[in-house]
Amino acid sequence: MSDSVFFVLELEVKRGQIDDLRTVMREMVDLTRLEPGTLNYEWFLSDDGASCHIYERYADSGAVLAHGTTFPENLNQRFIAFRPTRLRVYGRANEAVREAVSALAPAFLQPLGGFVR
To answer: Which of 24, 40, 48, 99 registers the highest number of CB atoms within 10 A of its CB?
Structure first.
C-alpha cells in the first residue's frame, strides 16, 4: 500500500457545453502539470458527451491540498458550471483533505489490500 490519494470526480455536461469543457480542461491540465505531487490528472468523456470523469492521483494528502490552491477563482467558477455529481476518494486522505472536499459529499474508500508498483 502507499500514501497516495486518488479521486474519481464525475461531472454532468449539458448539451452545448463540450467546447467550454475542453477549454476549462486545457487550462486546468496546464496548471496542474506544474504540481510535483500530482501523479495523474486525466479527463474522460462519455460516448454521449453527457458525463465527464476526472481521475486524479496524488503522492499524499499534502499534494491534494497543494492542488486545491492551484486554480484562480474565475477558473474554479467556470469548472463548477459542469455540475459535479459524484466524488469517490480512495486511499488515506487525512482530515484536512476530507474537510476540503466535504462540500461535494464524497464517499471515502480505505485501502483493504493489494500493491503499488
So the answer is: 24
Per-residue pLDDT tens digits for 53-78: 999 999 999 999 999 999 999 999 99
From residue 18, alpha-carbon distances to 4, 45, 54, 55 in Å are: 31, 9, 15, 18
Residue among 79, 87, 90, 81 at smallest CA distance from 104: 87
CA 51, CA 32: separation in Å to the nearest integer?
21
Instruction: Enumerate domains of the chain plus CATH numbers.
Output: 5-109 (3.30.70.100)
Query: What long-range pairs does 47-50 form, CB within 8 A, spacing at least 24?
Result: 49/13, 49/15, 49/18, 50/12, 50/13, 50/14
Task: Tell me whether strands 51-58 and 38-45 are parallel, antiparallel or unpaired.
Answer: antiparallel
